[in-house]
Amino acid sequence: MSLFLRTLALYSLTAIIALAASSETTSHFQSGIESYQNSEYEIAKTQFTVALELEKTAAAHHNLGLVYFKLNAPAEAVWQLERAQLLEPFNADYRYKLETVRQELGLFAGSAKWYTLASAALPSKTWLILATVSFWLLLAVVILPRLRETKANIGLKALRGISITVFILSIPSLWLHQRLLQTGTIISDEAASLHAAPASAAPSSGTARPGERARILDHYNHFYEIETEGQATGWISKDAFRPLAD
Amino acid sequence: MQLRTAFLLFALFTTSTLIAEIRVSARFEPARVAVDSASKYIVEIIETDKQTKPTAERITSLPIPSDGGLTLRNGHTSTSQSTRITNGVSEYSSTQQLIIEAVAPTVGNFTIPTYIFEYKGGRLQAPAATLTVVERAADAAPTVDELIFLQTNVPEQLYVGQTTPITLKLYVSSSVTLRGLNAFERRADGFTVSKLPAESSESVEMVNGSRYRVYSWPLTITPISAGPQDLNFQFTLSAQMPNQQNKRGSPFGGGVFDNFFGRSERFNIYTPPTQIEVLTLPAEGKPDSYSGAIGQFNMQVSADSNSTRVEEPIMLSLKISGSGNFDRIKGPEMPKTRGWRNYKPESTFEPNDSQPLKGMKRFDYVFIPETAGSRKLPEVTFSYFDPNIEKYVELSAPALTVKVAPSDRPAVATVAAPEADQQGSAPTINLTKALSPEELLTTLDYRPRKGRHIEKDLLSSPLFYGLNGAAFLALTTSVIVICRRKRLHQNADYALVHQAKQALKVTVKEAQSNDAAVFYRCAQDAIRLAATVHMKRSLRSADFAELEVSFKQCQVADAVIEQARSLFNEANNHRFSGQNHSTDLQHARTQLNTILKAL
């Protein structure tokens, strides 16, 4: 009986803590909305940032992006909107705003390709489960009938076909997911210089525009080696670039 | 003495060559014009230097003394630089011209006297210049100002913030060929002026018996500063004047060829100097709700539903229609009302296509009820200043009543008012509304939802390892099971040994019985089964003689064979004696274990 009561108390305590945390997040989120409505953007920024520290929601990222846009920091806004889009890839509203802010920065709207959208149909964890299950199922369907020296019936053949299809779909999707997480955004206010080596004194190898997307190739100390949308490659300070998976 | 004189002369010569020379001239161009024709008053500052290129200091104003009635307007500057090399000696010069348009009201001589002005820290003297204005000859050709002119219809008086439509009209004589408009400028520091439309409307008007093509552009002006404010517009245009067409003396008789090959000139055309008296809005009678609207307006207030539920939003729409400065109209502040939570409004403006100052501006306020019951939305008050009657007008709409039913969400506990209990279910509220692109961009997301979890490195996650490990185990187990079954089917010896092993396990377990008959039977069977497993041939029905032969073939120890013999004899004695007496089985069990271990 005492064990039951202790378990019950533990569950209740956990539920209360979770509820309190959730309530606190909502409170900061609502305060951020009210500050935004009152054009108090600095306060709204603080509130949405705290809300994000408590719980990472797409809406908080999106709203913080709009606050940055109002505060005339469009590159930061792009990063926040990219992040919101990552959390909710099929939110057309987020996509519209991201494309608009990018256009304000003189960048192409950068609509997602069909295969990127297709890969975003499921979360990466689900793709991983599908890939693993389909791989082992395919192995089993191929190996076990041979061991038993039986001829594969229509059911096994269908299972084999499904496994192959799912595996073929899930591997590129996983690769696209991982590749997306290896990208980031230039968050400097002005065009940032890319260097030929991971040092500020190294010769310039190109420039990256604020809000521009870039793929991380390597990193060393306080620098990332990136390839930008404009095909410029070089090393950039971590202060001027923020990975999407940060 | 001669040496000193020579030195002084040398010093004077050197100084004169090192210091830049500045010359000032002033003139009218042309110096003789017909009455009502414009001339240009030009002040020219020329700097020359043999060492370095002189840099002109831009002059923005001149202290021109009283000019006896001359109208001076639209001044501008022009600078140029040149270098002259004579016998290998360079001379640099810089020329700055201040050009002011001068128009005389009557016939006569108009002289601008000598005056002093400051330039580069020094004082320069502009010489006097005289303009002679004569009567126009009866057959004189019309002036440029008569052939092309610009006019606006601006009111004499406006209030700060009062938006007014005006029309800018460019009159071009039918004898003039307009080649193109090159630039448009406005001098309206005390106003905000709408952008000049790219396209103009064209019409024909008769002015003083002459036919003009009239190009019209609608504009709106809004005063931003009180007091007398200048408002001037200027066009720079290219046109071909009628006298130029005549000058060509084309053998083909002018006309079409003149139009194609005639030389165009650039002209700056100005509106007549215009000043508007801008008044401040009266402080007297100004309502608290006034937020800057000037014009004539009507107000309409509506809610999209008269019933809702707790925490389900309702939209209060305020439509302001009429004529005035819609761009300066802000949505009235809604007071904090008990039982309601509201947000700043979103506004849309639907202009009247033909009249830009007319239209309808709509403010949509989202109200969210916090408690159930019959709740009143706040009273809406809107005020504006009517410049026609020069008074403030206040419009108000009574508070709308909305029935709020308790929330159907289980998590939200609300205390329902008695009348709210009568409500069955609130109708679905459609809050969709077409937003402008800017509104769409800056609209927040009000619903924090948990998005996807972002896994930075999926391949090192426990899920990946766990899933693959489990799948590997399952497949390996399946393979082992299938292989074993296959071998049982295909290999008789293996099947025999397998069955014997299974049977041995069962028999050994049964041999734990304390019943001597059961024990001895099971012990004999166990030894036979163990021998079967060991020899890999069936000895399940063999007697001890056969077993002994097999044991010896397998080089089983003699002591073990003796123990087996003893156990078999004991079992036979017990079995065939016909007595069912209990004996001490401990020794026999030990023997059996020893034999089974040896096998």
What would you say about this model in short?
The complex is a heterodimer of chains A (246) and B (599). Chain A has 246 residues and is an alpha+beta fold.
Describe this structure in words.
The complex is a heterodimer of chains A (246) and B (599). Chain A has 246 residues and is of the alpha+beta class. Chain A has three domains: 3-107, Tetratricopeptide repeat domain (Serine Threonine Protein Phosphatase 5, Tetratricopeptide repeat); 119-181; 183-243, SH3 Domains (SH3 type barrels, Roll). In chain A, 61% of the residues lie in helices and 14% in strands. Chain A has helices spanning 2-37, 41-54, 58-70, 74-87, 92-104, 114-119, 124-148, 154-181; strands at 183-186, 192-195, 204-208, 213-220, 223-228, 233-237, 241-243. In chain A, the strands form two sheets. Chain A has a five-stranded antiparallel sheet with strand order 6-5-4-1-7. In chain A, strands 2-3 form a two-stranded antiparallel sheet. In chain A, a hairpin with an 8-residue loop joins β2 and β3. Chain A starts with a helix and ends with a strand. The model of chain A has no long low-confidence stretch (mean pLDDT 87). Chain B is built from eleven helices and 30 strands. Chain B is an alpha+beta fold and 599 residues long. Chain B is elongated, with a radius of gyration of 57 Å. In chain B, α8 (516-535) packs antiparallel against α10, α8 (516-535) packs parallel to α11 (586-598) and α9 packs antiparallel against α10. The model of chain B is unreliable at 11-18, 245-257 and 410-427 (pLDDT under 50). Chain B folds into four domains: 17-134, Immunoglobulin-like, CATH 2.60.40; 144-279, Immunoglobulin-like (Sandwich), CATH 2.60.40; 290-405, Immunoglobulin-like, CATH 2.60.40; 492-598. Classes of the chains: A alpha+beta (246), B alpha+beta (599). Chain A binds chain B through residues 25-26, 29, 33, 36-38, 51, 55-60, 62-63, 66, 69-70, 84, 86-89, 93-94, 96-97, 100-101, 123-125, 128-129, 132-133, 135-136, 139-140, 143-144, 147-149, 174, 177-178, 181, 245, and chain B through 343-344, 437, 440-442, 444-456, 458, 461, 463-464, 467-468, 471-472, 474-475, 478-479, 482-483, 486.
